[in-house]
């Protein structure tokens, strides 16, 4: 929680090439509105780069940093915004600066892919991290010793992490409420027609496969089966065993799945595993063989074939294409 005695709270946003622009605007706009509503500058912010060169966002819009990281002082919070693959251009100096800020009492955090360099900086110290569902597989493969949460926001011992842009907006609303009270927070939310404010323990919404809804909208037996599938990505479970866990026959589970999703349990399960593989193809440096094994295949050959059938492109080709599309400094080039 921020100190309430200060006249102005200053937030720093450390931008990496390819950072999600929506997360930045979702952080700044509610703070700007709070200042406007109260008629005073309660919140200030600084855009920060590792140096003062312009930083291009995910939407190819360039931002000019106000400060270089080495010159950033007087901040109450520092949030990292990046792609999962982003690395520090000057790792030794930049990570030392972030650790120095921690010792000075600055709240540290990350938005969306920004949690990756935040953890790499070595400042999480056993704390839980809010990880966007589409980065979860890559995060767990790189940081197996860090607890990844499905909560939209995690605020724990001067570490604030948010899974995506909507969650960032909610985090700022909580900050406004702590600073200015619920009435001002509600007015800010209404300015932006933000329908409700999610609490820290709200879980992320995850799309159900080929359904047009989210996992929590599926019938209970299907939800339970999907959770069993999710718990057995690396060590595939038999559909008959899943049916036993749900408490129905395999044939009955098949009918329920087809009715709810248009797919058989086996088709749904395979696509879940392939989507986890795709996360790692896009956002990790694991080899294709390592990825195949991590999602329950004995080798890369069948996984590669199923991947191409599901996504219309081979995993190695998708990696090369994505690196070319990004064309951004600070992005790790994944291994094939």
From TrEMBL:
Keywords: DNA-binding, Transcription, Transcription regulation. GO terms for molecular function: DNA-binding transcription factor activity; sequence-specific DNA binding. InterPro entries: AraC_XylS_family_regulators, Class_I_gatase-like, Homeodomain-like_sf, HTH_AraC. Residues 223-321 form the HTH araC/xylS-type domain. PROSITE patterns: HTH_ARAC_FAMILY_2. SUPFAM superfamilies: Class I glutamine amidotransferase-like (SSF52317), Homeodomain-like (SSF46689). SMART domains: HTH_ARAC (SM00342). PANTHER family: HTH-TYPE TRANSCRIPTIONAL ACTIVATOR RHAS-RELATED. This is AraC family transcriptional regulator. It comes from Paragemmobacter aquarius. The lineage of its organism: Bacteria, Pseudomonadati, Pseudomonadota, Alphaproteobacteria, Rhodobacterales.
